[in-house]
Design goal:
The chain is of the alpha/beta class and 384 residues long. It is built from 16 helices and eleven strands. The strands form two sheets. It has a seven-stranded parallel beta sheet with strand order 4-3-2-1-5-6-7, with helices on both faces. A four-stranded mixed beta sheet has the order 9-8-10-11, covered by helices on one side. Helix 1 links the parallel strand 1 and strand 2. Helix 5 runs parallel beside helix 10, helix 9 packs across helix 14 and helix 14 packs across helix 16. The longest helix is centred in the last third of the chain and has 19 residues.
Amino acid sequence: MQGIAILGSTGSIGKQALEVISLHPDRFFVTALTAHRNAALLFEQVRIFRPKMAALTGEEAVVPADLSFCQFYFGPSALEKVAAEAEGTDVLAAVVGVAGLKAVLAARRAGKRVLLANKETLVAGGEMVMDVCREDENGPTLLPVDSEHSAIFQCLQGAGPNRYDKILLTASGGPFRTWERARMLKATVEEALGHPTWNMGAKITVDSASMFNKALEIIEAKWLFDAVPSQIQVVIHPQSIVHSAVQFKDGAVIAQMGNPDMKVPILYAMSYPERLYTGTKELDLFALGSLTFEAPNLKKFPSIRMAYDALYAGGAAACVLNAANEEAAGAFLGQKIPFGSIYHVVEAALQHCGHLPARDFEDIERADALAREAARKAMAGQLK
């Protein structure tokens, strides 16, 4: 039996992780669950999966008497405590935002294997995270859960000792792929949340619409696969059947394909190197008809260009990009700024504090705080 702690169990990834765990009760058991504010759902999950630890990081709540078998913790530090102290070998990091970074570091320092569904952890602290996630005698100590990075990882399993030449990072293009730029910049929250192929949480869906999710994934790929920026190429693929691919120096390309269902990469990370049943609909090649690919429009989606700029700048630039985007995306979801302002806010924050160092965790915390402050000032028209 393999024990798994799920950080962010009430979100999209967390709920799907519990679904696949339910399919294999003889293989997995839940050791801990955490949520930010959704206490009602967390309590219900605890009733069903009966972990020994649980946490609510955003607020305190009265724990129902029937859950006395589970030890509850509250507040932001509870995430690290659960990550480090939960029973079992694996920690699935599925929280949204840079809040997951400390928890991932705590899990690794406690000897846990990390199943990473939190882009921001690597974007903000890539070098620091990879330093504590080196492969050991038991294999990888960090496994990617993002569909694209899981696909790249899976492709590389078939490459043996051969080094890839290029990473082909696919993107659906989101709901605004075919929109004129002027129309997109005025898009409503409802329109931004209408993703054509994936069912995700609100913030991630907005990032998909702005393509900041792909910007974060470019940075994530650099760290996960020891790539230089010029080796990472974004490919728009609206059907979301090819989840990503790798190209080798002989011109051969290995791609990972399947119907768009996050349960596949989630369970692959849990069961690696085995493949287990997910309940996912089989891919019918005859029904597909055709698959299409196109280059991204960098003028329309400057987020992709900003990712490369941040990588070349080094230091805390990627952390600044991530923090400013979190602030801007949150403001858009709260209907405080128009969709097009997300790009202006992030660009302004990068210009204002993208030169900061990232020598240690304190540097990253400082860069994150300063980037958020710059983003808020930019939204208020106060950034000089």
